[in-house]
Amino acid sequence: MPESPVGFSNGPTSSASVTSVQREFQQKFLQSDAAGGDHDRQQLERLLKQASPDPAKKFIRAGDWAPNHSLRGQLWVKLCRRLTSDGDWAQSIQHYKDTLPDVYKRNEGRPGRSIPMPVFTDSTMTQTYYLNEDGRLKCQKILTMIEANNPQITYAPALYPLTALFLHFVQDEAEVFACIDALIRPKKTGKFFMGDTVTSWKSASKVMAELVRRRMKAIYNFILHSIEGTERRDELFDNWLKWIFVDLPFETVIRVVDCYLYEGMKVLFRTGLALMKLFFKSAGRPYSMPNLAQNLSLFCREIQKHCSAADLLKVGFSFPRLAQDDLLTMIRQFEVTIQATPAARISPSDEGAKTYPGEYRRSISVPASVIPTDVINMSRILREDQFYALWQWLPLRHRIAQPTLLYTSEEHGTSLVTFFQQTGPNEPTILLVKTRNDDVFGAFCSHSWENRFGGGKSLSYFGTGESFLFTLAPYQALYSWIGLGQTSPPTSSSSLFMAADQTSLLIGGGGGNGLRFDSTLAHGRTEPCTTFANPCLCANGKGDFECSIVEAFGFMT
What we know:
Elements: H1 13-16, H2 23-29, H3 37-48, H4 54-62, H5 71-81, H6 86-105, H7 133-149, H8 159-166, H9 173-184, H10 198-215, H11 217-226, H12 230-238, H13 240-247, H14 250-263, H15 266-282, H16 292-301, H17 309-316, H18 324-339, H19 348-351, H20 373-378, H21 384-393, H22 396-400, E1 402-408, H23 409-412, H24 416-423, E2 429-435, E3 440-445, E4 468-473, E5 477-480, E6 498-500, E7 504-507, E8 515-518, E9 523-525, E10 544-556
Antiparallel strand pairs: 1-10, 2-3, 2-10, 3-4, 4-5, 6-7, 7-8, 8-9, 9-10
């Protein structure tokens, strides 16, 4: 990246900006500057000029500067200037100075120093930290100008706390405006810093939930146990930015922002994952926690009792393979799905499904128009209406991915060995069976069948509570894991999701197997089981069945 010619000054930027902060901030943090400031400035200046971003990235990650370090304000401005051209930077500053008086003519007659909040702010995220009245007024002026300059922004809750943080270290409010404007519209980098719509914010929340599910499966199950219902679990992850910008102490959040301004939004995702991991560890790995959201918020507020800012970042950066391009792809995929779906909650009557204890429906339905018809044509079992019903029961993140037919008994033959070869490492999978009596039922299997080797030579169960059983003909019904939303640990027999060896494949256990196939995949048996609280899936109530067709679908990511 071409480097801006502007270097670091040697002046104490932070001490120049104390007119915007409370006396408490001055007394707590501005007593003395950290040693070695000039050396750090020179070293960072040199690293930022290198072609490779890694040395500067490592330096900033490790730069555990004191909150009063004069380098911080200069660093933040420098990093934002790198996102845009010198001409655009100067134009932003001049635009702020020239336009601000005109913007405030619109607010003449308002009492005192009252300024309306921009429409893109969230009243629960108007964190001002140590800003005094003058600092808060500057913050609202800057955000009003951001709104006037960026009418496309409809929701960006992180803008308020970010602007407030800048004002602790940068005196010139026009320069703060230029910094925020550069983060919104970075022109010289592929980095992504924030979304600007409700859809992008909701998509980022879905990505955070998906990252927890993929990277910390025990914690994800902990959340399933602790929070009843999909909507309430969504609310937990909808608040993930608040964990950082509202709950974290000032001394911690500014270290997160140090890295965020250089590396982009992936730093916020990493911080969210780290907070979840450390919270779960501090709680002693309980089975469930009824007040999880409140306790997590309290943990973030009291993070300094548990770890330093440096330790928090170390945990966040320890998660492998979390590239910004991959995160951005995930956000865009969720955006497409959310934009194509109504936000109405599905009720059992909407889909003609029976309800049973432990059943929790997904909260966003998918119109038939967005279901890929080529996939419907792949299956010899499903009619379009059946595929549509099944699609509604999938977790939202899998409705984004393109399904693909992995196995069909008509093409690959009736052999469990072949089934395992065809499904391979794919997870999750959908297992479908059509019997010779024309019953259609199956299972959503959360994990790859390669996990069957986890118990060595003995048959052992694996999988998570996202697995479920279903029937599609002659009636449609979903049978979710009975542990969803429960606050007390279920018995061991109610967490028997998936198991298999060379002779049989099992789904659900405790009192019987919800589904069981023999080694030929030609014969099977279905029974009521504790795990899913399901009845016999055959319409005639008889457990044994003969398979007409067996299919398995995976998902392309």
